[in-house]
Write a structure and sequence with these properties.
The structure is a single chain. The protein is of the alpha/beta class. Helix content is 39%, strand content 17%. It contains eleven helices and ten strands. α6 packs across α7 and α7 packs across α8. The protein is globular, with a radius of gyration of 17 Å. It binds D-malate (MLT). The site of D-malate has 13 residues, from loops.
């Protein structure tokens, strides 16, 4: 008989490429890209999208779309909507009418890379400020029943550490039962950073390098929207190449 763990170890990784490493450890993975990929995924599923298919490259996205013209082609490069795409990467675009019942083919610079690199993990959940409580609750319940540790993978920006993802990891950690987890130093640092700024999250997040670039491109509203804590009770789950809402019929779990 497998004895339940006394405490669940919680770690956080700072870069998209490290999701492969977390998958090899056999951890439950939570992928974060607070600005903006994971906020768009959470919003799309909250607004009734059927599924999201994350892909790494533009070439793959165009190829799959050519065979499935009914899919919405979505994402960004350099923050902007690529040629021929239906949607960009602004969570505000993923509103009810536009995405309801749709399958969305999504490619972004860092977020979909982190997600697809974790494909060999049994459990991959998608987190953001928008669903921090819900994803923390689901992650804890699964980890407890399956004796797994948790790795929160921050996607970062263009291969570099990203402040907003670091703070977002802390927001999710703050919503785990503190007496039942043991934090790595990286996870503790994220938690401390989040606690320091939680009363004015937008002010802290808007200072990040990626936020400044998004503001230059005219996407300040996306940052404000993505900084809303626990707006949605939705946990996206990545399984067999597709992201669907926890509780969907074909999740098989
Ligand atoms: C990414 O995946 O790199 C981001 O979501 C970029 C963005 O904010 O558009």
């Amino acid at each position: 008989m497998v004895m339940p763990k006394m405490s669940i170890k919680v770690n956080t990784e700072f870069l998209a490429k490290n999701s492969e490493k977390a998958a090899k450890r056999g951890d439950l993975i939570i992928i974060i890209d607070a600005l903006r990929c994971c906020s768009s995924i959470v919003t799309a599923l909250a607004n009734g999208a059927e599924a999201i298919i994350p892909v790494k490259t533009l070439r793959e996205a165009y190829r799959i779309h050519a065979r499935n013209p009914g899919y919405l082609l979505a994402g960004e490069r350099g923050g902007l909507k690529p040629r021929g795409f239906d949607l960009g990467n602004s969570p505000l675009e993923y509103a009810g009418e536009r995405v309801h019942g749709k399958i969305i083919l999504l490619t972004t610079t860092s977020g979909t890379t982190a997600i697809t690199l974790s494909r060999n993990s049994k459990w991959v959940l998608i987190g953001s400020f928008l669903n921090a409580r819900d994803v923390a609750e689901k992650a804890f319940a699964i980890s407890k029943s399956e004796n797994l540790d948790i790795s929160i993978v921050q996607s970062g920006t263009n291969g570099k550490f990203s402040l907003e993802d670091f703070i977002c990891a802390g927001a999710i950690i703050a919503r785990l039962p503190q007496n039942a987890i043991v934090l790595s130093d990286a996870a503790l640092a994220s938690l401390l950073a989040f606690k320091r700024v939680e009363n004015d999250l937008y002010a802290a997040v808007a200072k990040s390098e990626h936020s400044r670039k998004l503001i230059e491109l005219g996407f300040m509203k996306d940052i404000k929207f993505s900084c809303q804590m626990d707006l949605f009770k939705v946990t996206p789950v990545y399984k067999r190449g597709k992201i669907i809402k926890w509780g969907s019929l074909d999740l098989g779990c």
